[in-house]
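Quick note —
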Amino acid sequence: MRLLWLVSEEAHGVLATGCSPVELAGWSVEVVHSAWAALDSLAHSAYEAVLADFPLPEWTAEEWLEEALRVQPLMPVLIREAEPRFERAVRLTRLGAFHYLGDPMDAEQFAALLEQAVRWRRQCERARSGGDPAAEPWRRLLIGESRAIRQIVETIRLVARRRCTVLITGDTGTGKEVVARAIHMASGRGHLPMVAVNCSAIPETLLEAELFGHVKGAFTGAIHHRMGRFEQAHRSTLFLDEIGDMPLDLQAKLLRVLQERELQRLGSSEVVSLDVRVLAASNADLEERIRQGRFREDLYYRLNVVPIHLPPLAERAGDIPLLVAHFLEKVCSREGIPPKRISAEAIERLASYSWPGNVRQLENAVEMAVILSGERELLVPSDFPLPSPAQWKALNANSLPSIRLPDEGMDFERTIARIERSLLEQALRRSNGNKKQAAELLRLKRTTFSAKLKSLQCAVNW
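Predicted structure written out below.
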C-alpha cells in the first residue's frame, strides 16, 4: 500500500529523527516537499492515503485540502499540525479531512489510523461502484457538484440502507428535508411514504399525542382512537424536523422509544412494537442548547449517530448555476409555461450574492423572476432585484443601531415594544403577509410570532 507524505523540507529534517511514517510496515511512503508536486502525484499515481504536514509555504491547510479532494474526492487525507487546536480539528474535518492530528505521533496508533482510512475508502468505492445515477432517483434531489454535496452523497450511499439514526444540521433553507427524503428514497423503505413532523409547528400540548397516538378518553377532546406518527411510519422513515424545539419532558419519552423500539399510546398500557428509521434535523446549535439545559445530552448522542451538516449556500456558490437551472425547469413545468433561459450576467449576479435565506431564498427568487418576466424567454439581471453588494454587505455587518438614552430617561418597555413591532412589520412585508415565512425570518415559532403580533397590535392590515 502506498502513502503520499507532503511535508516541508525543514519539517522533514526534524521529523525524520522521531515521528516519521517512513518505516510503517506494509506501506511504501513517497515523500514530496511541494504542495503542487503532491497534487500532481495525486492526479497521476495511485495512493491509499495522504498525510499532509503544515505549515507549508504559500498554502493554508484548507486551501490544499480543497484542491486535493477536487483531484481525488475519495482520498483519505490526514492533516497534521505541529500545534493542534480543537477548533482547527472541527473546521478541517468538516471540510473533508479524514483525520486531524498533531505532533508527536504514536507510530502504532498512526498505523491503525491508516488501516481505518483504507477500509473507509474501500467502502466508499464499493458504494460508488454500485451507484449508477440513472438507477438512483434520490440523487436527482441533491443538486450540485461542490465538495460538500459530493460528501453528503457518499454519506447517504453508505448509511441509507442501515437503520442508524441521522442528525441533519444546517441553517434555515439549506435543504435539510431534501436530504432526509434522499436518505429515505435510497433506503430499503423508499417504497413507503416518509412521515414528516415539524416539532416547532405543533403546540407542545398536542405534540405527544401527535407522535405516539392516543386512545378514546385519554384526555379532554379525545373522542376516538388515533394512530400516532410513529405508528404511521412503521416499516418506513420518520423525519423529525426542528427537533431542538421539542419540550424536555417529551425528549425523555422519545429517547425511550428510540432505545426500546416500542411505545405506548396516551391512555393505554398496551405496548406497540415498531420498525421505524428515525431522521432528525435542526437549525439550532444543539450542543449550545445542551449547555443551556434545553436539550437532553443523552438524546443528542442517540440522534447524532451519523451527522450530516449542510453548509450555507454562500459556502457552495459554485452550485448556484446548477440550482438555478433546476429551479427554472421546475417552475416552468409546474406553471405550464415554455422553458426559459437565464443570461450569463444574471447568473454572475446571483453567484455574487450572499443568500442569507439559502437555497429556499434562491428558489423563491427564480420563481418570482419567471412569473414576472411574462412572455419573455431570457431572464436578465433586472429580473432579480437583489440588494447591491454595498447594501447586503451592510446588512450582513450584524450591527445594531445605537439608541441614545435621553437625559430625562425613557420608557424601556414602550421602546422595546416599538422595536419588536417594527421587526414584525418588516418581516410581514418581506414575506407578503405570510406569517409562517415571517416567523422563519425572525427565527420564531409561528405560535410565538402570532402571539407577539396580537399583543403588540401591529398596525398593518394584511
